[in-house]
Amino acid sequence: MDILVLVLGILLLLVLIIKFKFNTYVSLIITAVVVALGLGMAPAKIATSIQNGIGAQLGELALVFGFGAMLGRLVADAGGAYRIAHTLINAFGRRGLQLAVVLASFIIGIALFFEVGIVLLVPIVFAIAAEAGVPILTLGIPM
């Protein structure tokens, strides 16, 4: 029965986000409350449980995103993003930029968490797109 409640909770989450276009955060809260009630959790404990779960998750992610954003900003401000962009454009040419972004993402992704890698690569992708005159999504999707 518990698995059925969880599956229905996932379906509810998808319906709220995809069909009704609810904000993802609001949808997660609504789904958490519905699943908790479905699993028989006491209503008084639901808010505390959601607070603890979200607080723990956001606490970890906030540090990762914060430090990653700072490092990405330092790379961009120091000219590192443009230097990397010029190097990749010269090495791969304009036709091979997507492959260059994939390889850079792979190399950066080996040593870093996903979130930090994304935050670091975004300024580089923006710089490459600006220098090469290609749409950002052309390079952002392979990332």
UniProtKB/TrEMBL annotation:
It holds the Pfam family GntP_permease. Belongs to the GntP permease family. The keyword Membrane applies. It is a multi-pass membrane protein. The chain crosses the membrane at residues 27-46, 58-76, 96-114, 121-141. It comes from Lacticaseibacillus paracasei subsp. paracasei Lpp71. This is Putative permease yojA. Keywords: Cell membrane, Membrane, Transmembrane, Transmembrane helix, Transport. It is found in: Cell membrane. The lineage of its organism: Bacteria, Bacillati, Bacillota, Bacilli, Lactobacillales. InterPro entries: Glcn_transporter. GO terms for molecular function: gluconate transmembrane transporter activity. GO terms for cellular component: plasma membrane. The keyword Electron transport does not apply.
